[in-house]
Design goal:
alpha/beta; Rossmann fold; Laminin; six-stranded mixed sheet; Matrilin-1; glycoprotein
Length: 481
């Protein structure tokens, strides 16, 4: 989903007093991460800071520290609870004096820039909050107050901005704080229905999702990586695809099941056969294990069954060794690979490699393999970038939480569309005007078919005006390659 926001300086003020158990503090970090995931993070859009407090205050992340969402999410994961008292007023004063200062990356106060603080607390403060909160609000800081468990509701109302119904939230325990995620994801959206106002850049379809929107494509098209434009993709194109999956002990059994679902989510989008996509699976930890080679299974059902049966290895993280195995074995003809067919690898990891990865990663890309790197949790951004193909930003992904890897799966489904795709205008035999600046023009359609590039022969039919029929008597103009 995409959400247009005004430039915002956003600071989370998080209570980690002794009443907040370590596993509960982890829930708060997941909540913070999920809110961040939906925001457009950058120096000119949303800047994020995090204050951690108990008896003292710790500036964990300043507004100027992290310029990318990936590094920001990784930094949030590393925050540790302080486990002492509850000086909420002191934390808010710190936000006024330090967190929202220009020295820490805050922008000059102006009507064009939002200043927002989200306070999360579970107890009774040991200091006053009323006056300091009023000073913060007077300085233009909009304050949301989230209370958990046995929190003092009167304190929350003293902290929060008006109207209180919009700025005070309560959850009965940290285990359900995530249910507030959507509210705060949408709180920063400027327009509630961008599709209705036509204030969007979707090439084909716009779908309203709460207070944000998502672009979509008509049948036969896929959404490009820019999230706005659409391209024809023959999902049945010949591709050899290998999943290289981290099975180290840090993943944990319950998350390994989510990884298997992630794999099968992508498999569902493929056309599996000897002539189209072949899938292989390799798991690694301290050693490397080929679960099944390319071409062993001829249909999606059998592949998905084999993935479900994969046993978790639960040892170390030898990503370099796994990449070398990929180069030396996975795409070999003896392992089922087909000569002349595009080779794609999806490397999934959740932590720092215990060996050197650069040489094997470089070799894979030199051999022409299309490399996607997916990192979760403690995965290292530099390692993901070293694995990923160019352009790197289009080939590596990161999320803080295993439960959100399905969102990465959706993106990958549109990217595993390899080969030299030709986009063609089809000019109908009429006198209607062709608008060449728009692939969705009134009398121009995109062919979802194969073209013999040497003869110009059209090999398949195309959807024209919602009906599938042979494209006869049409002229073809190459738009791009």
């Amino acid at each position: 989903a995409q959400c247009r926001t005004r430039p915002t300086d956003l600071v989370f003020i998080v209570d980690s007093s002794r009443s907040v158990r370590p596993n509960e503090f982890d829930k708060v970090k997941i909540f913070v991460s999920q809110v961040i995931e939906a925001l457009d993070v950058g120096p000119n859009t949303t800047r994020i800071g995090v204050i951690n407090y108990a008896s003292a205050v710790k500036n964990e992340l300043s507004l100027r520290t992290h310029q990318t969402k990936t590094s920001l999410l990784q930094a949030v994961r590393k925050i540790e609870p302080l486990s002492t008292g509850t000086m909420t007023g002191l934390a808010i004063q710190f936000a006024i004096n330090r967190a929202f200062s220009e020295g820490e990356g805050a922008r000059v106060r102006s009507p064009e820039i939002n200043k927002v603080a989200i306070v999360v607390t579970d107890g009774h403060p040991q200091d006053g909050v009323k006056d300091v909160s009023a000073r913060a609000r007077a300085l233009g800081i909009e304050i949301f107050a989230i209370g958990v468990g046995r929190v003092d509701m009167h304190t929350l109302r003293q902290i929060a901005s008006q109207p209180l119904d919009d700025h005070v939230d309560y959850v009965e325990s940290y285990s359900v704080i995530e249910k507030l995620t959507k509210k705060f994801q949408e709180a920063f959206c400027v327009v509630s229905d961008l599709c209705a106002t036509r204030d969007h850049d979707c090439q084909q379809l716009c779908v309203t999702t709460g207070a944000s929107y998502a672009c979509a494509c008509e049948v036969g098209f896929i959404l490009n990586s820019d999230g706005k434009t659409c391209s024809v993709c023959n999902g049945g194109a010949a591709t050899d695809l290998i999943f290289l999956i981290d099975g180290s002990k840090s993943v944990r059994p319950e998350n390994f099941e989510l990884v298997k679902r992630f794999i099968n989510q992508i498999v569902d989008s493929l056309e599996v056969s000897d002539k189209n996509t072949q899938v292989g699976l390799v798991q690694y930890s301290s050693s490397v294990k080929q679960e099944f080679p390319l071409g062993q299974y001829k249909n999606k059902k059998d592949i998905k069954t084999a993935v479900k049966k994969m046993t978790y290895m639960e040892k170390g993280t030898m990503t370099g060794q796994a990449l070398k195995y990929l180069v030396d074995n996975s795409f070999a003809i003896s392992s089922g690979a087909r000569p002349g067919v595009p080779k794609v690898a999806i490397v999934f990891t959740d932590g720092r490699s215990q060996d050197y990865i650069n040489d094997a990663a470089k070799k894979a890309k030199e051999l022409g393999y299309k490399m996607f790197a997916v990192g979760v949790g403690n995965a290292i951004e530099d390692e993901l970038k070293a694995i990923a193909s160019e352009p790197v930003a289009e080939h590596y992904f990161y999320t803080a939480d295993f439960r959100t890897i399905n969102q990465i799966g959706k993106k990958l489904r549109t990217k595993i569309c390899v080969g030299n795709w030709l986009y063609y205008y089809v000019k109908l035999s009429t006198d209607f005007q062709q608008r060449e600046d728009n692939l969705k023009a009134e009398n121009t359609v995109m062919i979802n078919s194969e073209l013999n590039c040497s003869t110009g022969e059209l090999l398949h039919e195309s959807d024209v005006g919602g009906e599938s029929r042979p494209l006869l008597g049409l002229t073809f103009q190459s738009a791009s390659v």
